[in-house]
């Protein structure tokens, strides 16, 4: 008589299924860059020092010049950024003998519910980090003219010279509603009803002006985040299963990891199930390269967060303008002035400045070492006029 082995459900199988389910339930973390937890293990204070590659400016040497000035040699420097790991999102439940024998058939349903709970936690944590990130730029989004506002957002991102990558606009629910109601952007009328319904079911509204529009219900309703896929880093890791745990496993899917463990508490005659994952988040800062008054390249003194910026929904152009946060031509914030000099992005100003006046003013700003900051390129317009096309794009 042939012997047929029993089909035993292993912890590894359930954990692997749960990892896939967890990854598929995420929205905001899905548009983050994924990073491995392994580099944090054994690090002091759960902190690793990440080396950021330096940037060198270009130089020009005059053709057939009189050789009265030497060639300028630049010093290459790399920066070290401390990244701290921290966060443990979990779901734990107890299952009585009676529930196990009479109410539930195995662990599959409960583990699915626990995985959904952990997913909601990761969604909330990533959204909190997203909202509180140190954005240097914010734009008002006029609900009465969304097309103009989105074209402006595209123009600003282009001016920031961000690295290549998928561009996404994460939308709060009020922004989503405004997009769907806009006659010029209505996805159902533009791409077909069937396609629009499918996209909405998957939280993706569609693609316009080079951006994927994704609904993030945890965001403040009137907020949207414009970003590329390398703007934020999402780190997860599954802790090891203790030797004393008789039934447990960890698993990973597409960079999202979790651990599942089950044991029995004889004092209360209950099974205990725990699903958990380590999680952490950070933004990516950049050193920028600009051109000085002589047309030579220079490297920014500050690191800037330019891979993402905020949009705030406004009722009309006046309110939208009041929401703008851009470098101020009349301000004294050296970091923001540097960003404006490099990108040409400025708040509108009533003060009319000539190019010469602008250059002289920029050169009087002192660096930490007491030297003058690099002035803006002479070909650039006055600060208040430099971005007329960005501030009020034509339709």
Question: What would your notes on this structure say?
Answer:
The chain is of the alpha+beta class and 395 residues long. Among the domains are: 11-52 and 82-130 and 234-283, no CATH class; 326-395, no CATH class. It is 29% helix and 28% strand. Strands 1, 4, 10, 11, 12 and 13 form a 6-stranded mixed β-sheet that branches. A 6-stranded mixed β-sheet has the order 5-16-9-6-8-7. Strands 2-3 form a two-stranded antiparallel ribbon. A hairpin with a 2-residue loop joins strand 7 and strand 8. Helix 1 runs parallel beside helix 3 (108-132). The longest helix is centred in the N-terminal third of the chain and has 25 residues, at 108-132. It is flat, with a radius of gyration of 27 Å. The protein starts with 10 loop residues before the first helix and ends with a helix. The model is unreliable at 3-8, 188-201 and 350-395 (pLDDT under 50).
Helix content: 25-40%
Secondary structure: number of strands: 16
The radius of gyration over CA amounts to: 27 Å
Poorly predicted regions are 3-8, 188-201, 350-395
Structural class: alpha+beta
What would you say about this model in short?
The chain has 395 residues and is an alpha+beta fold. 29% of the residues lie in helices and 28% in strands.
């Amino acid at each position: 008589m042939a012997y047929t082995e029993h089909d035993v459900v292993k912890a590894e199988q359930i954990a692997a299924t749960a990892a896939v389910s967890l990854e598929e339930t995420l929205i905001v973390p899905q548009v983050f860059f994924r990073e491995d937890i392994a580099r944090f293990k054994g690090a002091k204070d759960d902190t690793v020092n990440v080396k950021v590659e330096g940037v060198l400016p270009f130089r020009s040497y005059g053709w057939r010049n009189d050789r009265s000035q030497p060639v300028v040699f630049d010093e290459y420097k790399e920066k070290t950024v401390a990244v701290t790991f921290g966060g443990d999102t979990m779901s734990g439940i107890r299952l009585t003998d009676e529930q196990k024998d009479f109410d539930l058939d195995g662990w599959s349903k409960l583990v699915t519910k626990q995985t959904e709970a952990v997913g909601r936690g990761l969604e909330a944590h990533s959204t909190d980090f997203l909202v509180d990130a140190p954005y240097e730029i914010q734009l008002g989004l006029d609900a009465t003219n969304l097309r103009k506002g989105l074209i402006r957002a595209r123009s600003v991102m282009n001016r920031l010279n961000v690295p290549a990558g998928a561009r996404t606009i994460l939308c709060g629910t009020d922004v989503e509603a405004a997009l769907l109601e806009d006659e010029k952007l209505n996805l159902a009328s533009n791409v077909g009803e069937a396609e629009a319904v499918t996209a909405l079911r998957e939280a993706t509204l569609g693609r316009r002006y080079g951006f994927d529009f994704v609904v993030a219900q945890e965001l403040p309703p009137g907020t949207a985040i414009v970003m590329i896929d390398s703007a934020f880093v999402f780190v997860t890791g599954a802790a090891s299963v203790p030797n004393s745990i008789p039934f447990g496993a960890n698993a990973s899917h597409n960079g999202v990891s979790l651990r599942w463990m089950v044991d029995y508490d004889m004092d209360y005659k209950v099974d205990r199930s725990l699903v958990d994952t380590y999680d952490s988040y950070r933004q990516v800062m950049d050193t920028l390269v600009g051109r000085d008054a002589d047309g030579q390249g220079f490297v920014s003194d500050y690191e800037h967060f330019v891979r993402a910026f905020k949009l705030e929904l406004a009722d009309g152009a006046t309110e939208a303008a009041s929401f703008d946060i851009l470098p101020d031509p009349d301000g004294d914030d050296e970091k923001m002035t540097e960003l404006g000099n490099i990108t040409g992005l400025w708040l509108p100003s009533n003060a009319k400045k000539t190019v010469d006046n602008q250059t002289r003013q920029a050169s009087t700003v002192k660096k930490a070492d007491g030297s003058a900051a690099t002035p803006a390129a002479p070909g650039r317009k006055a600060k208040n006029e430099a971005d007329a096309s960005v501030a009020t794009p034509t339709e």
